[in-house]
Amino acid sequence: MKDVDRSTPHLIGQGALVLLLAIMAVLAFFPFLYMFLLSFTNSDSLYLHFRDITLDLHNYRAVFDRINFATPLKNSMLVAVVTCLLNCVLCAMAAYGIEKKRFAGSKAVFAIYLATLAVPGQVTMIPVFLMMRDLGLMNSYLALVLPSCDAFGVFLIKQFMGSVPDALLEAADIDGAGEVYKFSRIVVPLIMPALVSLTVFTFISSWNNFLWPLVICTDSSMHTLTVALSLLKGRFETNYGLVMAGSTMTFMFPFVLYICLQKQFVEGIALSGIKG
Amino acid sequence: MSAKQKNNLWGWLFVLPSFAVLLVFIAFPIVRSFYLSLTDYNVLKPPSFVGFKNYVSAFKDPFVQASFRNTFQYVLTTVPIQTILSMIVAAIIAMRFQNRYGRFVKGCMFIPVISSSVLVGTLFTLLFDSTKGVVNSAISLVGIAPVNWLGQKSTALLTVCIATIWKNVGYFLVIFYAGIMDIPMSYYEAAEVDGASKLQQFFSITLPCLKPITYLVVTLGIIWSFQAFDMVYAMTQGGPGKSTYTMVYTIYNAAFREYRMGYACTVALVLFVFILVVNNIQKLFLGRE
User: How many domains are there within chain A?
Assistant: First the structure.
């Protein structure tokens, strides 16, 4: 397809397409730029006058001092990291058990994993909420972390298990290696790319999760960033600079990660399409 | 213990932790959900059995009816636009801009995907503000009178739809782009030899080859519409009136504001059935894979 067409109509067409894509990119990015710039303004106006933009961080200071954004920031971070670790360990173990052990009943077990993929979180939310409440686990990290583990990761990593050669595991058996050694020293390094994709996907889902943290954590010391942001918006509706500073705070981490790990992000999140 | 038994035991040991999580947090809750849907349960008193009363009330509930209507409109607005838009942009990038510029545009359009719906809702509430919003200032430049986007019944849902489309297009773009890259180059080369234009190539090669992916994108778009909550919570809280109520918003209200747990479970199960149906329509068209 590397045709070198330099005719005028072609160049005009090419120019129009360049412009169209530029418009799409600007439309996608503009709201974030607006958010960022507005968080540095002093006024309660939505008009963005460049003379209003100051380089001082008073809105960010206010977000921390007046509404203690540090707590939800810490909570979101902790929950996201622990969820990622737990999800990776549990899913990798299950995928290894199903794909490499092929034990009696492993097919049926995998069928159950697949079936649970079709169940939306909103359907299980109420019984899980009642269970957590009965166990006295409302407003706990455990309640925020545990229900986020699902079968999607098992499905994802099982696809990847094929790249672990059986011969390698058999050789380890002959050398007398234990199961734990085989799993942690041979399998885990080989499935690293799948684990990275799963981590990215889990991190973003956990960080952006809203409904579950909203219902299970009623105490403000346990709020996550998304919940804190929705409260901030409700309380300081017209203090736009402040709301935008809070918004920028919630967005910073995923954004910086995205810039650093763009490829893994796009792959990890695109893979989740299978999840639907 | 024989080698085979030992193998089975280790297999189960590896599976057990995540399997236990699934049983406790997904399988058991579905069963309990069904039981609760047959009861009245207000959290304070133990559940009392009422048969299918909740199901009858669910279909008579004006909020559920409004949710259905809104979800239907939401699907009809978001799904066609986000599907067609993302497909066209993916095709343009794949056919003409497999270079740094194409990657840059894709990268920019993916940023909304990684942000939370609450954040997107917050941003769009400001952008579509009735008096001082950027959108109203922009349309006033071409002489259109300011619109009270989120404050009136006729445009509130549309505004939520716009925010949704804006957030989703980058995601579907990536899926379509990967799909186009999987189409063998030889098809296009053959078409080139036969003198087909790029537009003809798009309609006779790209579009048919993308059929399975298009089904996936449409199905996901519909399922996400059924599950819409965060954006609505951040932008309109279901209002004005019932004009932006969704199924999940109804569930949330019933369970966590009115403490009608049994009734909320009923609506949740109805939602579940709808999602299963949508999922299986896709399988019907594509065959099981």
Answer: 2
Q: What is the mean pLDDT of chain B?
A: 90
Please, which pLDDT band fits residue A262 given cuts at 50, 70 and 90? confident
Q: What percent of chain B has pLDDT over 70?
A: 98
Q: Within this chain, do residues A20 and A157 fall inside the same structural domain, yes or no? A: no
Domain spans in chain B, listed from the N-terminal domain onward: 69-286
Nearest CA in chain A to B171: A270
- Terminal CA-to-CA distance of chain A, rounded, Å? 34
What is the rounded CA–CA span in Å between residue A163 and residue B228? Answer: 38
Q: Is residue A87 part of a domain?
A: yes
Instruction: Tell me phi and psi for residue B48, to 5 degrees.
Output: -115, 135
Residues of chain B in contact with residue A273, where contact means CB-CB under 8 angstroms, are: 175, 216, 220
Q: Nearest C-alpha of chain B: how many angstroms from A67?
A: 17
Chain A positions touching B118 (Cβ under 8 A) are 208, 210, 226, 229-230, 250
Place of tokens 């537009």: B199
Domain region containing A22: 1-29
Which residues 21-80 in chain B show a CB within 8 A of chain A?
21-22, 24-30, 32-33, 36, 43
User: Could you give the CA distance from residue B231 to residue B244 in angstroms, rounded to a whole number?
Assistant: 10
Same domain, A112 and A180: yes
Length of chain B equals 289
A273: contact with B, CB 8 A cutoff:
yes
Q: What SS3 state is found at B39? A: strand
What pLDDT score does A164 carry? 87
Which band of pLDDT confidence, cut at 50, 70 and 90, is reported for residue B286? low
ipTM over 0.85: yes
Rounded CA gap, A141 and A85, in Å?
14
Same domain? A110 vs A185: yes
- pLDDT band for A275, please (50, 70, 90 cuts): very low
Q: What are the tens digits of pLDDT across the range A41-85?
A: 876 667 766 667 777 788 888 888 888 889 999 999 999 999 999
Name the residue with higher pLDDT: A191 or A177.
Answer: A191
pLDDT in tens, B251-267: 999 999 999 999 999 99
In contact, A34 and A50? CB cutoff 8 Å = no
Are A90 and A20 within one domain?
A: no
Residue A271 has pLDDT above 70, yes or no: no
Superfamily of domain B69-286: MetI-like (1.10.3720.10)
Q: Which of residues 158-197 of A touch B (CB under 8 A)?
A: 179, 183
Please name the residue of chain A whose CA is at the shortest distance from the CA of residue B97. Answer: A18
Those residues whose C-beta lies under 8 Å from the C-beta of residue A154, and which sit 6 or more positions away, are: A91, A94, A95, A98, A110, A113, B18
Q: Measured between CB atoms, does A50 come within 8 Å of chain B?
A: no
In B, which residues are within 8 Å of A82 by CB distance?
Answer: none
Identify the helix (H) or strand (E) that includes residue B40: strand B39-40
Residues A93 and A18 in one domain: no
Nearest CA in chain A to B121: A230
Contacts of residue B64, defined as CB under 8 A and 6 or more positions apart, other chains included, come to B58, B247, B250, B267, B270
